[in-house]
Design a protein that fits this description.
The complex is a heterodimer of chains A (538) and B (124).
Chain A: H1 2-13, H2 17-28, E1 29-34, E2 41-42, E3 48-60, H3 68-79, H4 83-90, E4 98-105, H5 106-114, E5 120-129, H6 137-140, E6 142-143, E7 149-151, H7 152-156, H8 158-161, E8 166-172, E9 178-185, E10 193-195, H9 199-215, E11 220-227, E12 232-239, H10 247-252, H11 259-262, E13 264-265, H12 272-281, E14 290-293, E15 296-299, E16 302-305, E17 313-316, H13 317-322, H14 326-348, H15 375-378, E18 387-388, H16 389-400, E19 404-406, E20 411-414, E21 424-426, H17 430-443, E22 461-471, E23 474-488, E24 495-502, H18 510-528
Chain B: H1 30-94, H2 97-106
The chains are: A alpha+beta (538), B mainly alpha (124).
Chain lengths: 538, 124
């Protein structure tokens, strides 16, 4: 008997040792993946705009489900799902894994777990949440169900936001209690990203834009608030907006686009600063240079005319800009500046190339590939050329910043990394810039085109634009883009605000549609940022 | 015969009682001594071994408890992190300027016009 036991012991401890040890380890040891949290996206004030919340995924092993009908009813009630959907998951054939509810709310999943339904299992996952819902939705973009950035900054910053999962080997007793942790590779969470956006400025811009779009029955609208000294984008708003937590629905409706960066439009009169700045820089004109201008002129096969019918008038360059005269601007471009120099100044201002803003899918804009005889009649007034809203805002920011262009950017810094230094380049001399800024102040005066942009207590400089929208068969009748770009306080600009409203109805002019929206946005921001007025109030 | 000299006839003096001769002690056997030492040594060793074994067991139990506690604390940490994130999310939602503005409007408040804000010049 003793000999038999001894022999059995020897057999088990030698020949069968390795297999039994392996089996034992398999039963007690389990590798556990330690999920790496995705980095949080903060605004400039430290408010989280996107963060990962814990969720619980509920899945089923259909082969282990004993009472599918009954379990489906219970699970559907607890999780708030349709019984049919749960039943489908519980009765799937040929698989041991079937999702019941991916990233379910943890409290509901815990309630369900307590019911101990056969075949139902749970594991923790992270669900991306956008706590401020619609605020900066188009800028933030979206991280998908697998926590991968799919759009917007979530996609652009995916490498920084994504962490590295860790692993742990845990030895458990038969009751599932951990008795030893054999090996641990800690998870490395994703880095936090700090944006230049301020959620208060952003939310206000979105609200004003929403009201403007609704008031004019417009297709959509865009607003950008820039700090001209640093190139920091304080707000980049789109209307209509959407709740960032419902991205798939917004995508289906085509609302997810950040038009400010990815879409182009013909700028119209806001582009006239390029022509005037070029002529001033080339010493071809001064603000006081006078031109005798008829209501309309012929340029090759095109007839150019001003917006309002008038007789032949003498206007200074400052008045041409103030009254946004098409005839005056084209006259300066055609008779003084010329095609070559105009092209050079368009390039100097950065049109036709990307600003390099840290947002995916930026468009460079479109410049005329071929200059016909009439091109000099439309490009100087912002027709036949397409720009992005961010290009235009950054150009006006350069004018506000003493002629120094600063690359616009949305990311202030990434956790643990050195803040990127934006590219800068001089596009105008300080002297010309001062002159231009002074001329742009006139636009907001009573005799200018944007009296609606006035903000009590502050000097405002800016330019209106009302551009017809091109279609496949020329300009589409009745379809316009109304724009206003302004700088406040004009004496020492702290903010550049651009507003574009696409296809407004009833009133179409930038000075009437976009300029009041500019005044609302800039007025709020100046108060919020505690920028003291530069005018004495009457 | 010389042998008779031992008992002379004319002398009847009693002989002193012969003293009990001390019985020779049995010399301790070397084998038994060694056995005793071994027994005592064995007891000491067994006791020491038992104490060590008990110590090892106690240590293992302590390690086990620490591991279980560690596992519990890990779970607690994850739970607290989750709660922390959820609270940060709630805080962000609650501090949304849109929400605050709507709440303020419900209370009858209106935004102060920018022109109503006064700034004091403190000089240089």
């Amino acid at each position: 008997m003793f000999g038999a036991l001894l022999a059995r012991t020897a057999w088990l401890s030698t020949v069968r040792a390795s297999a039994l040890s392996r089996a034992g380890q398999e039963q007690t040891k389990a590798p556990v993946i330690l999920p790496a949290a995705r980095g949080t996206i903060f605004d400039s004030m430290g408010s989280p705009l996107a963060l990962g919340e814990q969720a619980t995924t509920v899945y089923a092993d259909p082969s282990a489900v004993t009472k599918p009908q009954q379990e489906a009813r219970v699970a559907a009630r607890v999780l708030g799902l349709h019984v049919k959907d749960v039943l489908h998951a519980l009765t799937r054939q040929g698989t041991h894994f079937s999702y019941v509810y991916r990233k379910a709310p943890t409290d509901r999943a815990s309630t369900l777990a307590k019911r101990k339904l056969a075949g139902l299992h749970f594991y923790a996952e992270e669900r991306r949440t956008y706590p401020q819902n619609s605020v900066a939705a188009q800028v933030l973009g979206f991280a998908g169900v697998d926590n991968t950035g799919l759009a917007g900054l979530e996609a652009e910053l995916d490498p920084q936001l994504t962490g590295r999962p860790g692993e742990q080997t845990v030895v458990r007793d038969p009751f599932g209690r951990a008795i030893s942790i054999e090996h641990t590779t800690p998870a490395r969470p994703g880095k936090a990203v700090f944006l230049t956006l301020d959620h208060t400025i952003q939310a206000n811009a979105e609200q004003v834009l929403r009201q403007t779009v609704a008031h004019y029955g417009a297709k959509d609208g865009t607003a950008i608030v820039l700090d001209p000294r640093t190139g920091a984008v304080l707000a980049m708003a789109e209307a209509p907006g959407y709740n960032a937590n419902n991205f798939p629905k917004a995508e289906a409706k085509g609302l997810q686009r950040n038009h400010a960066v990815t879409d182009v439009f013909e700028p119209g009169s806001v582009f006239k600063v390029v022509t005037i700045a070029g002529a001033l820089s080339e010493h071809l004109v001064t603000p006081q240079t006078k031109f005798t201008l008829p209501y309309s002129i012929q340029v090759a096969d095109r007839r150019i005319h001003d917006a309002e019918p008038r007789g032949t008038e003498t206007m200074t360059v400052a008045q041409i800009l103030q009254r946004s005269s098409n005839v005056g601007t084209v006259t300066i471009a055609r008779t003084l500046l010329g095609e070559t120099r105009l092209k050079r100044w368009i390039k100097q201002f950065g049109f036709g190339r990307k600003t390099g803003i840290d947002f995916p899918g930026e468009t460079a804009g479109l410049l005329p590939s071929y200059w016909s005889g009439s091109t000099i009649g439309n490009v100087p007034i912002g027709q036949g050329i397409s720009v992005t809203a961010i290009q235009l805002a950054s150009v006006y920011a350069a004018i506000a910043n003493r002629g120094m262009w600063v690359q616009p950017h949305l990311v202030d810094h990434v956790q643990g990394e050195k803040p990127p230094s934006p590219t800068t380049r001089r596009i105008l001399s300080a002297r010309v810039d001062r002159t231009l800024l002074q001329m742009l102040k006139g636009v907001v005066a009573d005799t200018g085109t944007a009296a609606g942009a006035e903000i009590p207590g502050y000097t405002v400089a800016g330019k209106t634009g009302t551009a017809q929208k091109p279609g496949p068969h020329g300009y589409e009748p009745g379809k316009y883009v109304a724009t206003f770009v302004g700088m406040v306080p004009a004496s020492n600009p702290r903010l550049v605000v651009l507003v574009t409203v696409d296809e407004p109805h009833g009133v179409i002019f930038g000075g009437l549609v976009a300029a009041p929206a500019f005044a609302q946005i800039a007025g709020f921001d100046l108060q919020y940022l505690e920028v003291p007025p530069d005018l004495k109030l009457r | 015969m010389a042998a008779l000299d031992w008992f002379p006839n004319d002398v009847a003096t009693p002989l002193p009682e012969p003293r009990a001769r001390p019985r020779p002690k049995a010399a301790p056997r070397p084998r038994r001594r060694a056995q005793g030492r071994r027994l005592r040594g064995g007891i000491v060793w067994i006791t020491t071994f038992a104490v060590l074994l008990a110590g090892v067991v106690a240590l293992n139990v302590a390690v086990l408890r620490v591991n279980m506690s560690l596992d519990r604390l890990n779970k607690q940490q994850i739970q607290l992190q989750a709660e922390n994130t959820a609270l940060a999310s709630q805080l962000s939602s609650a501090s949304s300027s849109l929400r605050i503005e709507q709440a303020a409007r419900r209370l009858g408040l209106v935004p102060a016009p920018a022109s109503d804000t006064s700034y004091l010049e403190l000089g240089h």
